[in-house]
Design brief:
Elements: E1 3-11, E2 17-24, E3 29-33, H1 40-55, H2 63-72, H3 80-101, H4 105-108, E4 117-125, H5 128-140, E5 145-150, E6 178-181, H6 183-201, E7 206-210, H7 217-227, E8 234-236, H8 246-253, E9 258-260, H9 271-275, E10 281-282, H10 291-304, E11 308-309, H11 319-331, E12 338-339, H12 345-350, E13 356-358, E14 361-363, H13 376-379, E15 391-394, E16 399-400
Parallel strand pairs: 4-5, 4-12, 5-7, 6-15, 7-8, 8-9, 9-10, 10-11
Antiparallel strand pairs: 1-2, 2-3, 4-14, 13-14, 15-16
Helix pairs in contact: 1-3, 2-3, 3-10, 5-6, 6-7, 7-8
The structure holds D-gluconic acid (GCO) and magnesium ion.
Length: 402
């Protein structure tokens, strides 16, 4: 079997997606997600200029060798653009292998470690009262785990507060919009939010919260400590993780579990965090961390150190990524939780998929491969629209982490 063609498909059914379609001489094809939010065209260029020409003629069954070829062979290793491109190839090749074998990917990866994949949804409100209502809505929909984000009193815009009730979609303007941040206002408000949520709903559901890299380690230690009575499932991205040592400081001060890694692209980004047990959940995912081949390696390392998986699953991760992630989640022994932000109806129509949601759990389905297809004719009706993620400034105008 040989790879005869590889095409990059860009579409915007509600938001931008980059999909790689790898075709073979016996008619089987595979799909991989290559979407890098706000930087889509960089990955398109990387794939078209440097990856696709080197793929043609190769045996698609040689997944590990092809992965190593594009990782070691690039000389310039790592980085989100390179690793998203490698992920797209890797995912498409696993999809082909699954289709050839007639098996869903989780079967190729050792079968089911559990019956279903617990997912968490996003309850976002502009203030405390609205966030409480949103959490109630998610409980009614059957979610067992819910991420709660709320507008902070005194701040005009806050991370995670949706304009739309279906999902939170931050990349909304061609040029980055500017948000404002105050750590003092946030630290004052955040424990009140979770106190109110536990008072109203008790402890039956898992509650999660995303800090989105906004705090210093010592501030994160303080927040984690003040949230301990409300027993969060996790606090996510408390501080930027370029400095992995910073997490030692957080750990000295709080037992609130920590999740990190949605922006990671290799095992090295998480090496100290995992081996020193500085985090509890690793959020690296299929599309940005080198595809299933590399993510399974990260999960194996994490398993040795009691770190569980919690894959990123915002709307910028396409259904192709979601289908692959669900196969990974079902099979990996140290699964923790999967993020699930529903896609628009337009997106779901462009990417017909086998996965389903039922009472707080998702199931990848039993279609061969990852179980997600693309309707190219429909995709062509939604051309690319430039959209950037916002930036953040402190109240005095200084740039901050978004
Ligand atoms: C999350 C994320 C997202 C990201 C977005 C960036 O936890 O789901 O933080 O909201 O900001 O995916 O592309
Ligand atoms: Mg996040």
């Amino acid at each position: 079997m040989k790879i005869t063609a590889a095409r990059v498909i860009v579409c915007c059914p509600g938001r931008n997606f980059v999909t790689l379609k790898v075709e073979t001489d016996d008619g089987v094809y595979g799909l991989g997600d290559a979407t890098l939010n706000g930087r889509e065209k960089s990955v398109v260029a990387y794939l078209e200029e440097h990856v696709v020409p080197a793929l043609i003629g190769r045996d698609p069954a040689q997944i590990e060798d092809i992965w190593q070829y594009f990782y070691r062979g690039a000389y310039w290793r790592r980085g989100p653009v390179t690793m998203s491109a490698i992920a797209a190839v890797d995912t498409a090749l696993w999809d082909i292998k699954g289709k050839v074998a007639g098996l869903p990917l989780y079967q190729l990866w050792g079968g089911k470690s559990r019956n279903g994949v617990m997912v968490y949804g996003h309850a976002n409100g502009k203030d405390l009262a609205e966030t409480i209502d949103e959490v109630a809505r998610y409980i009614d929909m059957g979610y067992k785990a819910i991420r709660a984000q709320s507008g902070v009193p005194g701040l005009a815009s806050t991370y995670g507060v949706a304009k739309d009730r279906l999902f939170y979609e931050p990349a909304d303007a061609a040029l980055a919009t500017e948000n404002m941040w105050s750590t003092a206002k946030y630290l004052d408000f955040c424990p009140k939010l979770f106190e109110a949520l536990r008072a109203r709903f008790g402890f039956e559901h898992h509650l999660l919260h995303d800090i989105h890299h906004r705090l210093t380690p010592i501030e994160a230690g303080l927040l984690g400590k003040s949230l301990e009575p409300y027993r969060l499932f996790w606090m996510e991205d408390p501080t930027p993780a370029e400095n992995q040592e910073g997490f030692r400081l957080i750990r000295q001060h709080t037992v609130t579990p920590i999740a990190v890694g949605e922006v990671f692209n290799t095992i090295y980004d998480a090496q100290a965090l995992i081996t020193e047990q500085l985090i509890d959940y690793i959020r690296a995912t299929i599309v940005h961390a080198g595809g299933p081949t590399h993510l399974r390696r990260i999960a194996s390392l994490a398993d040795l150190y009691h770190v569980r998986t919690g894959c990123h699953g915002a709307t910028d991760l396409s259904p192709v990524c979601m289908g692959t992630a669900l196969n990974f989640d079902l099979s990996v022994p140290n699964f923790g939780v999967q993020e699930y932000m529903r896609h628009t109806e337009e997106t779901d129509a462009v990417f017909p998929h086998a996965y389903t949601f039922e009472r707080g759990y998702m199931y990848p389905g039993d279609a061969p491969g990852h179980g997600v297809d693309i309707d190219e004719k429909l995709a062509a009706k939604y051309p690319y629209r430039p959209a950037s993620l916002p930036v953040n400034r402190l109240e005095d105008g200084a740039m901050w982490n978004w």
